[in-house]
């Protein structure tokens, strides 16, 4: 645990706005520090509490991340690390900023004990797809009602910089969702509900006997921009036959529905890794809208196709039945 008044160099150094910080954390500022203003008991992140920027409470830091298993559910995680001497109770949290039309809101509370950490899960809000000019802001609602003489709620607003989001999770999710939104203005993309399994006689990339065929449909949106789908990348479960991606060349210029068939072999055959895979059925799309290349976004296979995919892997890889 770090002494009062010190902050580890690896911790986030961005400015914060704080109202009514818990008395146990404020004590680390020393007797000469002015006491923070008391927060209203009903204060919450959604109320946009006005506050003066102050340093991050000693020993407390935050970091944004995302678990692969929660990618499809649009959930991000905020880890609150606590090297102070008191509990840090996060009653609620949200992420806001100019590139989000609605805030990401927490799905529950969490408590970081001294010397430990806690994870707060947040459901992403709807993106606002213009070029962002400001960083996102994480707002934490701290519950210090158990500390005598302290306010029951404290609101902490924290600018999210590269040190607080080292994997650039928020930017990548925003870019992916805006790319999908831009494509959807000019074309509806969909997979056929099932994949086809075909037998082959030659050995292809170490796998003999079966390939999977998936069909991608592009249906133009009347009056929308020109959409072209150049390629689909391989995934952790599926490898394109003959290269690292499927070259498609689908275009909404056709004026009606068009389709392309993707032929695949297993990308891996270890049953344990396949069983635990979380993104193998999320197909990475490379497209342009009115000639402007979009960030890669993901088009998931439908449920029936995902089930058939696992059956295909078992067949192609020669796993024992059952």
From TrEMBL:
PROSITE patterns with a match to the protein in the record: PROKAR_LIPOPROTEIN
Keywords assigned: Signal
Region of interest (Disordered), ranges: 29-57
Keyword Signal: yes
Keyword presence, Signal: yes
Annotated signal sequence range: 1-27
Protein name: Uncharacterized protein
